[in-house]
Every structure is written in C-alpha cells, then in structure tokens.
Amino acid sequence: ESDTASEISFQFNKHKKTPSIGSHSSDMASVSSVSGSVLSVYSGDFGSVDAQGTVEFALDYDEKSREFQVHVSQCRDLAVVDEKKGRSDPYVKTYLLPDKARMGKRKTSVKKRTVNPIYNEVLRYKIEKMVLLIQKLNLSVWHNDPLGRNSFLGEIEIDLASWDWSNRKLNWYPLKPRSLSAVNGADHRGVMNLSIKYVPPGSLGKTCPKNPPSGEVHIWVKDVKDLLQLRPSGVDSFVKCYVLPDTSKKSYQKTRVIKRDTNPVFNHTIVYDGFHTEDLKDACVELTVWDHEKLTNHFLGGIRLGLGTGLSYGISVDWMDSTQEEVAFWQEMMSAANEWIEGLLPLRSL
C-alpha cells in the first residue's frame, strides 16, 4: 500500500570505483505488511504517565581520551506504566543538544519489572571539550514496550557550559516533565520514519517468482515529523534519494510533494538492485528533505545510511559520515537479510 514504488538497477564497476545505472519500475505491494513505530527524544510518547522519581548519575570528561562520560547509576520511585500488572520496564537515554557534533543518542540496558532500576553503566561520547561546552545534556527515562510504544517517565537537562567539572560524584536529581528544548532545539530539523531491507542475490530460492538475480536494497520512506516551518502556510516538502558514490540523474529518486504539512506522510518505496553484500560496506544511502518552491528548493535536513568509515572503495570521501545511530541502523540491515528494519532517525545538516 505504498504511494509510489521505484526501482533502480545498481551495477558496481570495481575498477572505476563508480556505479553505472539503468532503471525500471517495480510493484512493491509486499511492503503493506510492515507496521510499527519507534520513538526518539524528538517525538511524543505514547504514555500518559506523570513524571516522578529521581535519577542518580555523575558526569566526567577524560582529557586524555577526549571522552565525555555519563555514569548512570540508578533510579528511584519511577512512575508505574502498566497499573494492572504494576510494572515498568525502564531504561535511560541521553542526547547532546542541539547535536552540533552529530553524536546521536546513547541508552542503557532495559531493567524489567521495577520502578527502582540499578544500571551502573557508563554512556560515552568521543567529543572535543570545546564542542561539548556549547551543548546541553538531555537525560530521559523511558518505559520500554515490546511493540515500540514507549512511555516517557521523566527527564533532566543540564547546560554543560555552566557545569562544575570538578564534581565527579554521583548525585540524585529529580525527574521533570517533558521540556520543549529537546523538541525545539536550535539544530532540531525533524525526524524521519523509515524501513530498509537487504535482499541478497538468489536468497529467496528458485521457486520464488520475484527472486532477484542480484542483491537489492529496499527503502521505504514512511513519514517525517516536526519539520522546520519556513512560512506561515507551512512547508511543501519532498524527499530526495541517492545511493552514493553515484550522484547521476539515474541514481536520483524523489517522492511526491506534500503541501502545507510539517508532518508529511510519503509512504514511498524505492528499490536499488545490482548490490552484492560487499558493496554495502562502500555505498551510502543519502535521504534529504526539501521545501519546494517555484524558483528554488530549500534544504531542511537529511540522513546518510552507511558504515561511516570515511572511505568508499578505498577512496576518502566526506559523505561517508554517518552518525552512530545511522551506522547501527545500516549494520542491523546488513546482519538481517530479507527482514525489514524500522527506525526513527533525526534529520541533520549534511
């Protein structure tokens, strides 16, 4: 039930280091079976639980390793999400806002059936001290739901510029209701909801009529939330897609334009074929969101899905710069052949 289905043939030439592409259309009715949702710090939560309780943590910066460390110790007296069963399955998540260093999120393990979880985990960021001091730490506690309908339990936000870095001790802090700064941060550009899948060559078996002779990467752009509103009437947005290193018109695909909506639903699928498993280490799927106007289009934000190694077929490239969250999303696709991997990724400047 996707809005549009496009398929691009992607044939890699190892000697030239660049792909040559031909295109044709494809029916992608199978994507209608995919459903679900994942939440991040940038989106609303499903629960209606009032924030309560406290969290114990300590902050430190290791000058030698240039590493920011958040030691999450424990929480006490958290809200109960499932009142019938009297349970919460909490975990702690951190973001650096407004994420100018593109560091993404960190989170602890999930502790089941407790409102007094003990973690004793260290969340680490490789970041220069001078960059860290212009950001804020957002630490939030969430109830983990198996279906992805996670509930917000409370948060605390710390301005790192004014933090006392001589204080390395564990301290208790009260959890507060949702603040607007995490949602409307200076660099917040919105969140893209999408699914991806890799189908290896011949993996579906000879009896399958749609068994691809070469590998395929399927990209299902579902929707985008909280886009920047550039004018009072809203935003007329569309999504562009390239598989880098190819930036030719044959690699280029785009969705239709959704008018006057900061939460556009695209439901658009694209298939790139000609992939071999080893190509996934060197290619990068770039998805960018644009505001459409008659004279010029305005860039709103984007994501790059790849391994983020800085290299493509042995050549140093600046676009192989995926964040940790984007890398983890791509790696999960690589390790789960023929399975849809769903994610909710924050848009960023590229």
Automatic annotation (TrEMBL):
Pfam families: C2. GO terms for biological process: exocytosis. It is found in: Cell membrane. Its main location: membrane. The keyword Repeat applies. The keyword Cell membrane applies. One of its GO terms (cellular component) is plasma membrane. GO terms for molecular function: neurexin family protein binding. Signal peptide: none annotated. This is Synaptotagmin-like protein 2. The lineage of its organism: Eukaryota, Metazoa, Chordata, Craniata, Vertebrata.
